[in-house]
Amino acid sequence: MEKHSTEAKPTQSSVLNCIDLSNPDTNESVTLLKQACTDSGFFYIVNHGISHDFMDEVFAQSKKLFTLPLDQKMKLLRNEKHRGYTPLLDELLDPQNQVVGDYKEGYYIGVEVTEDDPESQKPFYGPNVWPASDVLPGWKETMEKFQQEALDVGKAVARLIALALDLDANFFDKPEILGEPIAITRLLHYEDKISDPSQGLYGAGAHTDYGLITLLATDDVQGLQICKDRNAKPQIWENVAPLKGAFIVNLGDMLERWSNCVFKSTLHRVLGNGQERYSIAYFLEPGHDCLVECLPTCKSDTNPPKFPPIYYQDYLSQRYKDTHADLHIYKH
Fold first, then answer.
1. For residues 118 and 137, what is the distance between their CA atoms, to the nearest angstrom?
2. pLDDT number for residue 3
3. What sections of the protein cross the membrane (predicted)?
4. Distance spanning both ends of the chain, measured CA to CA
5. Could you read off the pLDDT of 52-65 as tens digits, one per residue?
């Protein structure tokens, strides 16, 4: 198929900036971040405050969920609010180049809002789908603690991003932005398949993330690749090495849009190498009623806003609809 042929073999590992969140020299961190955000849109953060032991526990609990029998996992199938289990091949991120969906299964956990709370009427808010506590004891508590700790890390990164964009450090802490964020944890398990781009087979197809920032924790199995210039022909893909105890952070499309393309959201994908692989992604998104319009520091007479303003919930709902299978296919 002609469409699979515009690719060079990945020959190198990407060298990403590493930002130490415990570094008292904020200017140094901001400089490193700004360089990363204008170059690859990817960087590592270390000393982020979540302990190694706790991250090991989150990975262990994730593995327990994915090793349940398929019929048990299907009882936890994702709902219209994007909570719960996503089966193998459910997600198709790169329809132009993929012949089937991604060779991964996932599990979505969002902001917990009870059914009787008026807030639960909003997209992406509502009760989570939790495995029964007798099946996976302590699972829910571990994941809720992770959600809370990851939010603190995400807010710390957002403060550095604000400074790098010449905004007030607390710009993103406003109530409508990260005061009541749409924050989504996604547990991922990649099959022990070997990906083959020439055949349209991927662990995760090439895509950019939708939102503000993503924090990604991985095991030590290689798989993530980035393409700094999505328009290059052939595309050049670089491996991103796992780094124990670090989060790999990348910027989403919404931050690219917000910053008028000053910062970039970078194309990335996962290629399987025959080993199982586990990762945990935390997507930090602004609140539903956040109106995303060009940041004041990112426009000028010679560089006017490239995108119209949009409410965040409208934007995100459409992006999810575009990439996931219709839930009706699972009804028998």
1. 30
2. 44
3. none
4. 34
5. 999 999 999 999 99
How high is the pLDDT of residue 2? Answer: 41
**Domains of the chain, CATH where assigned:** 18-323 (2.60.120.330)
Cβ neighbours of residue 234 under 8 Å, at least 6 residues apart? 6, 7, 8
231 C-beta neighbours (distance < 10 Å), count: 7
- Hunting for tokens 């991103």 — which residue is that? 240
What is the overall mean pLDDT for the chain? 90
Q: H helices within 91-138, ranges in order?
A: none
Identify the bridge partners of residue 327 per DSSP, sorted by sequence position. Answer: none
pLDDT at 7: 58
Could you give the CA distance from residue 30 to residue 43 in angstroms, rounded to a whole number?
12
User: What's phi and psi for 283, nearest 5 deg?
Assistant: -100, 115
Residues in the chain with pLDDT values less than 70: 1-11, 323-332
- Amino acid at position 323, single letter: T
Q: pLDDT of 235-276, one tens digit each?
A: 899 999 999 899 999 999 999 999 999 998 999 999 999 999
The Cα–Cα gap between 224 and 62 comes to: 19
- 167 φ/ψ angles, rounded to the nearest 5 degrees: -105, 170
Question: Residue for token digits 């893909």?
Answer: 237
**Residue 66's closest CA among 186, 150, 147, 149?**
186
Residues 29, 159 contacting (CB under 8 angstroms):
no
Cβ pair 157, 49 in contact under 8 A: no
Kindly provide the residue ranges of all beta strands, DSSP E only, lying in 252-296, ordered along the sequence.
267-270, 277-285, 291-292
